[in-house]
Design goal:
This protein is α+β, with helices and mostly antiparallel strands and 248 residues long. It is built from 10 helices and 9 strands. 48% of the residues are buried.
Length: 248
């Protein structure tokens, strides 16, 4: 693909990670994200695409449970990622819960605003809270508790969350969708490796699911660590989960 336009790490290359906190295949890829966070010369940047926002927000229903459970089982088999009873027999039976990507995306932005790297930590904590513990990660009190789990000051997090909610989160989601379109991605997760020389390529993670250490070694081989700036351009539409991915 062509050069991308979004600040690439001064350390060298940037792995752009387009995700949604409620995307099952992003949870499948979580060990891959964690594995490459300390690859020399590589920075990981997250981009929340707002899969379930606005008119795409979804209430939990028995039909939704029946739809997602086979895909969750497949993810568990492919990757070894755990799914808890709190999720299968708690959250997925909680018809009062609403699947809304915007509040947890704001929480990711707020955590990152407090400490560099905490945004990725928050993504992982949200995924565990959702898929293992079965918690309502669109609820403000749950998000505050998760931030505290990560060592964030409760008042500082609440302040950052309030400041970044609404327009700032909407702008982040819009930019992420533009990036997704520019990268030619079909949904979540999408990974793009942007090199310091301005070149960029989308990476198919399918072959690497469940093989985190091999994936890490591959990324280390691909990274060309030298300071530079690259960019990633922009524009996509609403997202929804498909059977094998969270797709546009």
């Amino acid at each position: 693909m062509a050069a991308v336009n979004d600040n690439t790490s001064a350390a060298g290359a940037t792995l752009h990670y387009v995700f949604d906190p409620m995307c099952g295949w992003c949870y499948a890829a979580a060990p891959l994200v964690e594995a490459v966070r300390n690859v020399p010369g590589l920075k990981v940047e997250f981009h929340g695409g707002g899969m379930m926002t606005g008119t795409n927000r979804r209430a939990i229903t028995p039909q939704w449970r029946d739809y997602v459970m086979p895909h969750d089982r497949r993810i568990a088999e492919l990757t070894g990622q755990p799914f808890g009873e709190g999720y299968f027999d708690g959250l997925l039976r909680d018809t009062g819960a609403v699947m809304d990507s915007e509040p947890p995306t704001t929480a990711v932005l707020a955590a990152e605003a407090l400490r560099e790297g905490a945004g990725l930590d928050m993504i992982h904590r949200l995924q565990r809270a959702h898929y293992v513990e079965g918690r309502r990660i669109a609820d403000a009190d749950v998000l505050g508790a998760l931030a505290t789990d990560l060592g964030c000051d409760a008042d500082a997090f609440a302040s950052a969350f309030s400041r970044l909610a609404g327009e700032a989160t909407s702008e982040h989601i819009a930019a992420s969708r533009r990036l997704l379109q520019r990268a030619g991605g079909q949904g979540f997760p999408t990974f793009v490796l942007a090199q310091a020389d301005g070149t960029a390529s989308r990476i198919d993670i399918g072959p690497w699911l469940g093989r985190a250490e091999e994936w890490k070694a591959q990324l280390a081989r691909l990274v060309v660590p030298s300071p530079a700036t690259t960019t990633m351009a922009a524009g996509a539409g609403p997202m929804s989960c498909g059977p094998d991915s969270c797709a546009a």
